[in-house]
Structure formats: C-alpha cells, structure tokens
User: Which sequence fits this backbone?
C-alpha cells in the first residue's frame, strides 16, 4: 500500500470516509429512485411535487410477467452463459500462447485482436445484419452467440494474457524438465494458477454480454429477446410504461451488483484491458 | 510492468525446451484467430464491399465506386454528426478525467470501508448502458422527473424549456449522463495506479520538508503520467462510440442536434435502408478507430510497459 498521505489520524480518516460516502450516496441515488418505482403506483409516480410516501403496488410486476419478460430473463441468462463458456474454451489456450511463446507477426495479431475489441458495434451490426439475413441467422441463438464473440473473445484473450504473464515461468520449465507433456503442463501447472484470472475475466465477459444492447436489438427478434432489448419495448404508442421499465432495469442490475462486489479490483484490470493491474 | 516472464522464456536455458515444436503456439491460437476472422475481419471486408455498391433495402445492386463516399462526405448531416461527437467527447472526457483524478486522490487518503465503497462506486460504469439511459430518462423526465422537478425547476435553472426538447441542452444532458457513468471508471483506475506507486520518493520528500502539493506535482504526477495517458486515450476512444444511452435518451434528436456517427449509421441502415452509404460511414469510422487503437497500443506498450 503506497498511501503516501495516509497517517494514523482518526479524525481526518473519518472526514475523507464521510466525504466518499456522501458522494457515493448522491451518485447512486438515481438507482434507489428507480428501485422505488418498481412498486410505485402510477399516480404517485407522476405527482408534482415529488411524492416520497406511497402505498406499494405489485401492478408493474404482474404486467411484466404477463408480457412474458421472464422469458427474456431466461434468454439473456442462457445466451450469456453459452457465449461466455465458448469464449473460455476457445480463448484460454490462445491467451496462454500469446503470453508464453514467440510467434511471427505477434504484434500484428495483437493489433487485430485489439481492433476487434474496440470496433464500434454499430459498424459491425450492418454487415452482420445483411449476412445473417442471407444465411437465416437473424433472430437465432447461434447468430447472437457468434456476434458476441467479436467483442468478448478478443477481450478475453487480451486480458487473460496479462494474467498469464504474471505466472512464474520457472514452474513450467521445471515440469518440462521432468518430462511432462505440454498438455500435462497446461492442465496441472498453468490452469490451477490461472483459475482466478479465468474466473475474473470470464465473469466480465458475461457482464458485457448481459449488458449488450445493439446486437441483441438488431440481430434478435421475437424468438430471441434479451433483457436490455425488452426495456425500450416498453416505450409503446399507448405511452411509456415507467414502472415496468424500472422492474426490468432493476432485474438487469442484479448480476452486476453481485459482480462488482465479487470481482472488486479485477474490474479495473479488465476495463483497462490489462493496462492497469487493479 | 516489465515482462520478466517473457524475457525469461526467450533467454533462459530452458526456453529452448518450450519452443521445441514451432507449431504448438499456432495450434493454441488457431481456434481464436479463426473465430475472430469470421466474426470480425469478414464483416469488415463485407462492409468495404457494400460501401462500393449501391445497396438499398437489403438488396445489393451495381458497383458505384466511390459514389457512396462522395455522397457521405458532401452530406451536411455527416459533418454534423462528426461535430456532435467531437463536442461530446471533448467536453465529457476532460471533465471525467479531472473529476476522476480528484476522486482518486480523495480515495487514496485513509478512507475506511473501501471494500464496500469501491464496488458501489463502480455501479454506474458496470451497469448496462441502456439502464443508465433509462435511469436518466426517469430522473430528467419533463415535469415529473425527480431531477427536473426538484433541481432544475425549483431553482429555475432552465426556465420554461424541458431538457430533451432543446437542441443545445439535450447534448449537455447526454454529456452529463456520460460523466455520471464514466467518472467512477477513471477514478478507480487512477486509484489503482496511485496504490501501486512506490513509497520511497515520498519518504525522501517528507525528509526534505516538501508539502503535499509539492509532492503531488513533483512525484505523483510525473510517475502517473503514462497511466493517465493510457486511461485517457482508452476513454477517449470509447466515448466516440457511445450508442445505447444516446439511443434511449434522444435517438439523435431534437432534430439532428445529438446525432453522433453511431446514431446516424444506425438510422441510415435501419430507418432509411441506405446500406451502401451507411457502410461507407462504418468503414470510415472503423479506419479512424483502428488508427486510434494502434496509437493506444503503442503508448500503452512503450510508456506504461503494459501488454
């Protein structure tokens, strides 16, 4: 810990802690407000001045269930799990190889991977849409799983590589001297040490897929509707269903809330593509 | 961090053992690279192909050379979108940067309960951008929105207009939302950087009687510069492609006052079905992004020794 300025002064620590708590409370207030709207009757919702107290209602929940939004939840969950699992299976060996071996044109391959990650999704969705329309992959599980590979596989390989590079190479060398095969070395030496990195990176992939909107919106449809896509669908010609949107929005937040607590500092590493070791 | 492991693989005596079969690493990367060629390179090449053709309503017709590019480059709406994105990025990112740096310095004091506070602070950045848009659609809704009523209207900040009806204000509202969403990222990335700084220079400076401000400008800032540059650049690239929040909050409106290239490309494709021109726009944006990416890569690799 390089807390240059931290000294054992209780009162000053209390001041800074209070400051951060107040800041966090203000910043997170919109989330609390949306949470309250899940059970807020419509007349209280649109009241001027703002109404703080109201008799809670479950109307919004029942409408959401009526519209079959629990299927969107299931779709999102299955889609994100499958696409993340595929990314882990395909991407782990690549991340390891990039961290450990010299290859021709490594820099160019890196730039290609980084480019895949950084490309604006709206640029990709146009060719994807036309290709999918031709081969019949629109509104299909396979189609979206493939499309999610673009940003998640590149992300996974890129970030897991930075975890691989933290592993001491001596263990693998010792195992090689013992005459272990490459597969054995990977399974018994590398994989156990890399497990935390794999979990952290793949959970981030899951969240990116979970949060993804544009691909799901354009390439999905009636059969495959993810949770984020079902939010703007509640802006109907008969009016905006605010309470219902709040219910879906909060549902979409639950895994995110779990992940920020579990992953903590790994998030920084993931979001900076491994440039900062959180 | 210097890649100690990599140099060892290359130079160590056992390095040869790891490299005995030259095809082994290529075998490991093959599935990933083939997948990426299919899902990333192929769409890009197809977009280039489309951009040279007249393609409307999903049907690809004649080869038209650079016509789509010429139409696009002489289209005021295209230049408007570039202007909107530039304004958006050049206002939002510097503010996020400054607030993030200040926040990181505050967090670096002896704040207690960080293991609870840091995850909570991360919420805006990690949640779905579409939900971020929804949150602020609720907070900024005309007349009944919490923020509109209790802050803007009570203190009569905007007068009679509602935010998303005014061409100027709508863009600033989007900038405000982006700042809310991304300041935590900057703050926590910078904080991680501060935590990794060595203590030695601070001890030496304390012996010399330096004050905290001097320490910040002569020790913290110089040591943090590469990291600040890399994070700033990354955020800069990301901010150019914001789509979800703008889509749900304004979808480019009122008029075309908040129409970024992303929103414009989306409208060209799925509203006007002018796919040739949309592809030309996509290709141009893509090339620009690739240039930014290689700059990011070079800076991160050389200055920060990351990657």
Assistant:
């Amino acid at each position: 810990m390089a807390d240059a300025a931290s000294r054992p002064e209780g009162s000053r620590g209390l001041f800074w802690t209070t400051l951060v708590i107040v800041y966090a409370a203000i910043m997170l207030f919109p989330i609390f407000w949306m949470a309250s709207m899940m059970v807020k009757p419509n007349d209280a919702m649109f009241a001027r001045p703002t109404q703080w107290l109201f008799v809670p209602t479950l109307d919004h929940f029942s409408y959401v269930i009526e519209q079959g939004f629990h299927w969107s939840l299931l779709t999102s969950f299955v889609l994100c799990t499958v696409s993340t699992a595929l990314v882990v299976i395909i991407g782990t060996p690549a991340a390891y190889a990039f961290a450990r071996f010299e290859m021709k044109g490594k820099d160019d391959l890196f730039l290609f991977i980084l480019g895949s990650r950084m490309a604006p999704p709206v640029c990709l969705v146009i060719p994807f849409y036309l290709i999918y329309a031709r081969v019949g992959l629109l509104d299909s599980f396979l189609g979206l799983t493939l499309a999610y590979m673009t940003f998640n596989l590149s992300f996974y390989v890129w970030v897991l590589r930075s975890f691989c590079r933290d592993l001491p190479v001596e263990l693998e060398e010792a195992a090689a001297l013992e005459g272990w095969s490459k597969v054995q070395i990977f399974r018994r030496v590398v994989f156990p040490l890399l497990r935390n990195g794999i979990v952290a990176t793949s959970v981030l992939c899951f969240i990116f897929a979970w949060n993804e909107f544009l691909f799901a919106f354009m390439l999905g449809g009636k059969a495959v509707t993810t949770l984020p896509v079902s939010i703007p669908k509640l802006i109907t010609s008969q009016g905006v269903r605010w309470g219902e949107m709040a219910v879906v929005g909060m549902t979409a937040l639950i895994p995110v809330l779990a992940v920020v607590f579990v992953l903590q500092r790994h998030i920084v590493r993931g979001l900076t593509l491994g440039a900062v070791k959180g | 961090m210097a890649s100690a492991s990599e140099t060892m693989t290359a130079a160590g005596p056992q390095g040869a053992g790891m490299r005995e079969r030259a095809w082994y690493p290529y075998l490991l990367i093959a599935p990933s690279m083939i997948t990426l060629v299919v899902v990333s390179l192929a769409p890009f090449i197809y977009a280039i192909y489309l951009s040279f053709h007249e393609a409307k309503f999903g049907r690809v017709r004649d080869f038209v050379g650079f016509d789509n590019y010429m139409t696009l480059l002489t289209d005021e709406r295209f230049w408007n979108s570039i202007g909107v994105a530039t304004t958006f990025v050049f206002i939002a990112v510097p503010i996020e940067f400054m607030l993030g740096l200040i926040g990181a310095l505050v967090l670096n004091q002896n704040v207690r309960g960080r293991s609870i506070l840091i995850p909570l602070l991360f919420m805006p950045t990690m949640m779905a951008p579409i939900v971020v848009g929804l949150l602020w659609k609720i907070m900024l809704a005309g007349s009944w929105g919490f923020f509109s009523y209790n802050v803007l209207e009570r203190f009569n900040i905007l007068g009679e207009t509602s935010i998303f009806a005014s061409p100027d204000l709508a863009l600033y509202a989007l900038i405000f939302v982006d700042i809310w969403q991304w300041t935590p990222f900057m703050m926590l990335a910078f904080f991680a950087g501060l935590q990794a700084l060595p203590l030695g220079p601070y001890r030496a400076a304390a012996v010399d009687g330096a004050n905290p401000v001097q320490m910040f400008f002569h020790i913290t800032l110089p040591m943090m510069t590469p990291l600040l540059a890399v994070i700033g650049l990354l955020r800069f690239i990301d901010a150019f492609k914001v789509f979800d929040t703008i889509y749900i909050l304004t979808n480019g409106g009122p008029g075309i006052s908040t129409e970024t290239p992303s929103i414009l490309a989306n409208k060209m494709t799925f509203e006007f079905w002018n796919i040739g021109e949309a592809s030309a726009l996509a290709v141009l944006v893509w090339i620009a992004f690739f240039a930014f990416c290689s700059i990011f890569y070079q800076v991160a690799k050389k200055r920060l020794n990351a990657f």
Summary: Confidence is low (pLDDT under 50) at residues 1-19 of chain B. Chain B touches chain A through 121 residues (CB under 8 Å).
